[in-house]
Amino acid sequence: MTAHDDLRTLADEYWEARLEASPLFATFLGDHRYDDRVDDLSAETEQRRRATWARLRDRAAALGGDLDETDRSTRDLLVHELDDAVRTTDLRLTEMTWDQMQGVHADLLIVAAQLGAPEPEHAAMALERTRRYGTMLAQAADRFREGLAAGRTPARINVERSINQVEGYLASPLASDPFVNLSGPEGWDGLDAWRAELADIVREAVRPAFATYRDVLRDELLPVARPDDRPGLAHLDGGPDMY
Prior knowledge:
The protein is mainly alpha-helical. Helices cover 65% and strands 0% of the residues.
């Protein structure tokens, strides 16, 4: 194999690992292999992925040989992407995704309305995924607690805005819920029954999980949040590096 072939293989490996690491992203792009999964936010999984990113980065950085200018640019971009993934893990930024822009609650509410299940098999997988959204929210809450234990307190305004977002969702009608209104197979005779099952899952599992997540924001993060005169990351140890 040539260096070009090695680079192509490596890029393919990275992309497959990226999609598997974020099933929601894969579905958003139209890849439905992981439609029954949610993203794993646990610290343990994050560390396993870090090892994958580091191995791929080192292999990419070692590529040279007969790479032409285009291939060298591709290699450099791949190394940068993987190095950024490693650095993001080392900075433990997941512990700080409590805000109204990057919080898991915001991501789910935005992405849910953009996903679809084009075939009945994908619709069946989507039911399992919907049952698992609560796991993502619980994992996010655990990561917030890890951050608090390390002195990574949030800005009050961010927590307040996130609480408002979640409470707004919980107060919204079930009929307009984005998780219930997932796009289903066109012309499918099982559509109504499937959507009714989605509504049951959302009522009995997803919304209670959002309520528990809201309670963590309100009862655990808000009391220790930084006041409005200390909102920036500069007020945290290591804040400039995180920024």
